[in-house]
Amino acid sequence: MNKMIVDRFEGSIVVLEYKGKTYEFPGELLPEEVKEGDVLKVSFKVDKNATVKRKKEIEKLMDEVFNLQK
Amino acid sequence: MLKTGYKKFAVLLVLLLFILSAIGCSSSNSSGSTTAPVPNSHKQQEKTISSTKDRKSDAGSVLKVHFIDVGQADSILVQTPSGKNILIDGGNNDDADLLVNYLKDQNVKTLDYVIGTHPHEDHIGGLDVVIEMFEVEKVYLPKVSHTTKTYKDLLLAVKDKGVKIIPAKAGVKPDIDSEVKALFVAPNGADYEEINNYSVVFKLTYGNTSFLFTGDAEALSENEMLKSGFDLKSDVLKVAHHGSSSSTTPEFLKAVSPKYAVISVGTDNDYGHPSEETLLKLNNFKVKIYRTDMQGTIIATSDGESIKFNKSAITPKAATKNISIIDINLRDEVVIIKNSSPQDVNMTGWTLISAKGNQIYHFPEDYVLKSGAIVRIWSGKNARNNPPGDLFWTNDYIWNNDGDTGILKDADGYIVSSNGGN
Predict the structure, then answer these.
(1) Contact between residue B316 and residue B220 where contact means Cβ atoms under 8 Å apart
(2) Which of A65, B80, B123, B229 has a 20 to 30 A CA-CA distance from B187?
(3) pLDDT for B236-279, tens place per residue?
(4) So what's the ipTM on this one?
(5) Closest partner residue to B147 among A19, A24, A37, by Cβ?
(6) A12: which chain B residues are within 8 Å (Cβ-Cβ)?
(7) Does A26 touch chain B (CB under 8 A)?
């Protein structure tokens, strides 16, 4: 179910097949040993700390850029 | 970098071996080719009789090759003078409907030959549906497995059809008909790291005209083809791997010495296809270029003597022919371009490209290079900015001092000039 298959590499991009459809993915995010035809077990994890940090960073930038006076 | 250097060395070595072997022995690869037409099934004979008129009026005594616009993928339909249909590759999965409709529009009922060059999705994607929808006589695939659903679907479609796949490899001569000769010139090996190198490369000859269909064969396979001693010379080259820089070595191009090249490639694809390097090589060999991303489906028609195309080759406009990069100083980071034509040229939309690194400079809106004038394009720390004679690109270093090529393109993306720099 959470399996993707490596169809091919196109330079730094890897083309992955999921349920018969293909998706492009940055090759650098995959382990180095990955080859064409490999079946990948895919799982994503929410990084809560990074999310909070990122939100703060963007909101700080918004405060600078938005006109708060209305 | 290291890999590239090694590859170049390997290419030279292979070329040397090829020359030596060519001197050492006379051509020895013609073994009694089969020419007698194979009787078709009863059903097929009926169809041939009933549709001969259609087919003849459609084709006359010409060979028609359709490079179907399937975006960033390959699919080629060949229709022989006797009415045989050969389908080479089937686009992406999403192209299945488009392909089925295209084949129906060409009055295709039976695919006499289906060739999947290699099992990547952008080559076999739509083949399963096509095989389901049409009568299929023979299927050729290279003997390499792939784990994708796309490949499994293809195998299942062939299985459902009750057809057995014929392994495609160098030296196989599919018996098309008495007029059209076919020969597989790759794959020459059976164990490659990259699936692309299993690509079936297929030479088709009709009268004095010939076509070479290359799939995604990379430099490694090209070198093997050179070594194999096959006569690769062909009028039309389907440029391998959508014009990627990992294929189409100068040595291979020289052996094929095509008059025309067709690049099957998607608009604004994410892979940088076709590469500037490949376009430049074709340009240097004075090959006329056709592209599916810019021109849609390309149809080549051969009467056995000459080949005509449904579109005009991509060439620079006459007025821009006399604009050239007269010098690139790689160290001082300056490119000098001269307009030797009698007219002023508006360079809006023009670009200057550094082949190494693929950096692109866009000329300013409404910039006019006057007749007889020169312009310098500056980059690096000391880049100047003093239009119209000195144009500022960037303070970054663009040109690789170990060798780089500048490519000047007009607003239509045609290569107007190139220069290897010094």
Answers:
(1) no
(2) B80
(3) 999 999 999 999 999 999 999 999 999 999 999 999 899 888 98
(4) 0.88
(5) A37
(6) none
(7) no
